[in-house]
Specification:
Shape: elongated
Helix content: over 70%
Radius of gyration: 18 Å
Largest sheet: none
Length: 139
């Protein structure tokens, strides 16, 4: 349980930091129905930038964590860390990184009241996570 808690605590950093580019958009998104067409293009540009930053942060952190997985596990758990723990950590890094790419879509869809679309995407990404867990658990 301690290893699982350590792995999930470390990988939640990827999700939390990749959500940050979206937060400045939320006030503008909540008013999307009242925005004129010329302002919508500015908002679309801001959303595009948020997607790009979110992708860069998620993939960047995922890459750094994946590369430093052995070091991070040794820091968190001590000197004796079985290779299975490092592999499990790397698998969770892949899953958390892919899941973090959905941050902008999650907030944008809820802000424009597209709850059904958000639900479908969330279900798909959750199923993808379960499939990845199943595939990687064979290792």
């Amino acid at each position: 349980m301690g290893v699982y808690a350590t792995i999930t605590d470390l990988t939640t950093v990827i999700s939390r930091l990749s959500d940050l580019p979206v937060q400045p958009l939320l006030p503008a998104l909540s008013k999307i129905r009242t925005i004129l067409d010329k302002d919508k293009s500015k908002l679309q540009q801001q959303i595009k930038q948020a997607v790009e930053i979110n992708t860069l942060v998620a993939l960047g952190l995922g890459t750094v964590f994946f590369t430093l997985a052995s070091f991070l596990m040794h820091v968190m758990l001590g000197d004796v860390v079985p290779s299975e723990y490092i592999l499990a950590f790397r698998i969770e890094i892949i899953i958390a990184t892919l899941y973090s790419l959905y941050a902008v879509g999650y907030y944008v869809l809820f802000s424009v009241n597209a709850v059904v679309e958000s639900l479908l995407i969330h279900l798909f990404s959750s199923l993808l996570s379960i499939v990845l867990i199943f595939i990687f658990s064979k290792k």
